[in-house]
Specification:
This protein has eleven helices and no strands. By secondary structure, it is mostly helical.
Length: 233
């Protein structure tokens, strides 16, 4: 409980730190002058995004309805705000000094908080025997999908390797093969997904390094197929 309070305070502080360059008071004027800027150098769109970030991190804007576990709520906040910060970084009219001094620092702090949340989630999952997030083949196949992007970010996966994407697509084709029984489809799909994890097939190829996070998701999905096969005919 104490850790959750600390994390919430850290997130709120990130929002407050970002807001210092979007205000229109004497303190903001002093900060901007210190880096050679003035009020007019900050686009109104940037101010609005930072206000939204501050609201989300302070818990004033709800991202989900209904009962949600505290650590999952915090994880959602981090993913949502990460996307908003990336949108700020892509703004051509936002001064580079703002991006370097404020946005990059916010990203680093968010990453630090996310690592602590991930650890807390893993501890809860181990105790409850539940999974905090469900993975499907589409996380590798449709990596441009907004929901999949969020999941990949939360896992720390920057890019899905092409050969993993190909394996996921082949596994999906197997699952759609009606000439096989449900059990055969599940087992064969699991085998296909395990191929990228076999050093004899991919491990010795020059330039290929499979991230641990990708291995984890491959194992999770393949294991789900095996469990499914055990209850199928």
């Amino acid at each position: 409980m104490d850790e959750e309070i600390i994390v919430e305070k850290d997130l709120e502080l990130i929002g407050e730190n970002l807001s210092v360059f979007t205000g229109k008071d004497k303190e903001t004027e002093k900060i901007l002058k210190g880096i050679g800027l003035n009020f007019n150098d900050i686009p109104e769109e940037a101010r609005q995004k930072v206000e939204e970030i501050e609201e989300v991190l302070a818990g004033k804007k709800k991202l989900k309805k209904g009962a949600v576990k505290k650590d999952e709520l915090i994880a959602d906040k981090i993913m949502y705000v990460t996307e908003l910060i990336e949108e700020l970084e892509e703004m051509p009219d936002l001064p580079v000094s703002i991006k370097k001094l404020f946005l990059e620092e916010a990203q680093k702090r968010l990453l630090s908080v996310r690592e602590r949340v991930d650890w807390a989630v893993s501890q809860r999952v181990a105790m409850e025997g539940t999974k905090p997030i469900s993975y499907t083949l589409d996380i590798f196949i449709k990596e441009d999908d907004k929901n999949n992007k969020r999941k990949l970010k939360m896992l720390g996966i920057v890019k899905v390797p092409d050969f993993v994407k190909e394996a996921a697509m082949r596994a999906k084709e197997v699952l759609e093969d009606k000439t096989l029984t449900a059990r055969e489809r599940a087992l064969k799909a699991a085998d296909v997904l395990m191929e990228p994890l076999q050093p004899a097939i991919y491990g010795n190829m020059e330039g290929i390094k499979l991230p641990e996070e990708v291995k984890y998701v491959l194992w999770e999905i393949a294991n789900n197929f095996v469990v499914q096969a055990q209850t199928s005919k």
